[in-house]
Amino acid sequence: MALDPIPSWSSAASESIGLFYRKLQPIEVYVEDSNSEAFYFELLNRMITNDKKIRKIIPLHGRTHVIRHCENYQHATPALFLIDGDLDIFFAKRELGKTNLFQHKAYCIENYLFCKQAARELIVDASGITLRENAITEQEWNTVLTPLTQLKELFITFAAARSVHPELKTVSHGFASIITQKFRKQAPVIDDNKIADLDRAITLECIQKVGQQAWDRVRQDIANNSSAIPPIDGVSGKDFLLPMLDHFIRSKGCGSSSTHSLMFKLAKYCSLDRLQDLQKALNDVISGSNFVSH
């Protein structure tokens, strides 16, 4: 017998959840993603510099809902609104002029979990006998990072495709589209040829849509405008980097886990160095200051 689906709050109902927690926490935090409360709870509470802690993360089920609630929010209780950068980062496109709306400079919040420090802790925890200094060698980590440059080029193509052929499937191809199972008892590996094939296939679709000259111009403009984006920020953390990291730590003895479980574990251990802007925004809003998105 089929089970009834687990009920979920509508975005409108979710917006009101903060009312019940205003006396219990120093700030209301609104995020895009459903089923992300535990991960954000762990990560953001690590960033707070005083003894007050967040008690409830409020997911609004989509970027548009977060932006709308930010625009309409009028309560005196401090509130922070978090949205991802997405492919907009390749166009230097940001949500401007909105009070306490924080847009990540990376593709998504998951990009900040792609972290050697966190991976090392998960490997040590899984082993019980491996010393931290031996958990990941520099050569191993450099090998993990090697595909990112080619993947950023793929994401430049994705961004250009969104501009000229928006209905074309791009990021949603996901990590599975670029890996190959070379040996039955070993984990799949990233396949440079598959990355190139996917890039080429999308390019051809776009050329058929707008012509070679228009495509070359659009893609080159995006490549030029995004030259300063580090590959670790430009590739989707959720769709590509986290599966890549999961494959790596499993090859080092970690057991398999769900995406949500992996995110929670990484949030406990990841370095906060790349999250300093978010940490400042969070603590400033808690202290009563506001900022305007830029």
What can you tell me about this protein's structure?
The protein is of the alpha/beta class and about 290 residues long. The protein has 13 helices and six strands. The strands form two sheets. A four-stranded parallel sheet has the order 2-1-3-4, sandwiched between helices. Strands 5-6 form a two-stranded antiparallel ribbon. A hairpin with an 8-residue loop joins strand 5 (about 180) and strand 6 (about 190). Residues about 1-5 have low confidence and may be disordered.
Which key terms come to mind for this protein?
single chain; 294 residues; alpha/beta; 4-stranded parallel beta sheet; 13 helices; disordered N terminus
- List low-pLDDT spans: 1-7
Bin the helical content: 40-55%
Task: Please indicate the percent range of residues in DSSP E strands (runs of 2 or more).
Answer: 5-15%
Structural class: alpha/beta
Q: Strands of the biggest beta sheet: in what spatial order? A: 2-1-3-4
List strands and helices in order, with pairings.
Layout: H1 11-15, E1 28-31, H2 37-47, E2 57-59, H3 63-72, E3 79-83, E4 101-103, H4 116-127, H5 132-135, H6 138-145, H7 148-164, E5 179-180, E6 189-190, H8 192-210, H9 212-225, H10 231-234, H11 237-251, H12 259-269, H13 276-286
Parallel strand pairs: 1-2, 1-3, 3-4
Antiparallel strand pairs: 5-6
Quick description:
The chain has 294 residues and is α/β, with parallel strands linked by helices. Helix content is 48%, strand content 6%. It contains 13 helices and six strands.
